[in-house]
Design brief:
This protein is an alpha/beta fold and about 325 residues long. It has eleven helices and twelve strands.
Length: about 325
């Protein structure tokens, strides 16, 4: 899907494209380009695969006028640095550490399913997944219990097994990071509600993990986990929690959960993020611009604004 929303607006705006997928997940992109090339003229959409050094060569190449990148903030900084010599135009959709804030008037039973899938869609391996959950003290334990109960109904296993709902972490590096962050949270007083250790089976299988009673200063809260582990943070003052949520250098998405949508919207507009949702999280749509602020990126995708990212302005005066 990310390849689609990189390639299609670029072609629609009249460009030719070279796409380089992650070396860890190239096959679907190769097949996508094969299908496109059944109808497109030769050379309009091209795919190259290999290690990350190829991406660096593309971003430095004088024949490339525009770079669009989705990935980590650290790699995005490298793309930006290597594009300096040619002053390329850039669209960078980078890492997030999205905060979800549950107001005291929210109904825990009504929001648990939305909270769960906001955090664990694709097993948490999504840029705009809910990655930090702040819950008001008055309903904190009820939300924790509801999430734990819901998680217990979700089967994690081999994707070829029809009984599986969620699968493994994609690669060893990310698997080890999730394990380290959860272990660090446990050592620092985190209460493991579900999961908390790798599954006893071959592969990078890590169970859905909910960690309560953690706070800022714990790595699982401060860093992007990009996997099936969610920290749940207790708060009592809404203005304070918004300020604390905004302390993070990431600013991709955020959400506010409440029985009063208008009140939620007022608080949502105080969050420093490119997209903010009310009573849901991470639901992007093609007619609405999507992008980050702060260290979560530059520019937007989707909508007319995203299409214009693949154009330049020329003024003709006579």
């Amino acid at each position: 899907m990310i390849a689609c929303w990189h390639i299609v607006p670029a072609v629609r705006a009249g460009n030719t494209v070279v796409i380089k997928p992650s070396p860890l997940t190239p096959l679907s992109t190769i097949r996508l380009v094969e299908i496109m090339n059944e109808v497109l003229p030769a050379g309009v959409v091209n795919v190259i695969t290999g290690e990350n050094s190829i991406g660096a060569a593309l971003s430095a190449h004088p024949g490339v006028a525009k770079m669009t990148f989705t990935g980590s903030t650290e790699t995005g900084k490298k793309v930006m640095a290597s594009a300096v010599a040619t002053l390329k135009r850039l669209t960078l959709e980078l890492g997030g550490n999205d905060a979800g804030i549950v107001l005291p008037d929210a109904d825990p039973k009504a929001i648990v399913e939305g909270l769960f899938w906001g955090a664990f869609i694709n097993n948490g391996q999504t840029c705009a997944a809910l990655k930090r959950l702040y819950v008001h003290d008055s309903i904190y334990e009820e939300v924790c219990r509801g999430l734990a109960d819901y998680a217990g109904k979700i089967a994690v296993g081999d994707g070829l097994d029809e009984a599986s709902i969620l699968g493994p972490i994609q690669n060893e590096m990310q698997f080890n990071k999730v394990r380290e962050l959860v272990d660090d949270a446990r050592v620092n007083g985190g209460r493991i509600l579900t999961g908390g250790a790798p599954m006893d089976r071959p592969g990078y299988f890590y169970p859905i993990t909910l960690v309560a009673d953690v706070d800022h200063g714990v790595r699982l809260v401060d860093e992007e986990q990009f996997g099936p582990a969610l920290p749940i943070i207790r708060y009592s003052d809404i203005d304070e929690v918004i300020a604390r949520a905004n302390q993070n250098p990431a600013g991709l998405g955020g959400s506010v959960w409440s029985a009063d949508a208008q009140k939620a919207k007022r608080y949502a507009m105080q969050l420093e993020c490119g997209s903010v949702w009310i009573n849901k999280h991470g639901t992007i749509q093609p007619n609405a611009p999507f992008g980050g602020v702060k260290q979560s990126g530059i520019g937007v995708e989707f909508g007319a604004e995203g299409l214009k990212e693949f154009t330049t302005i020329q003024t003709v005066l006579s």
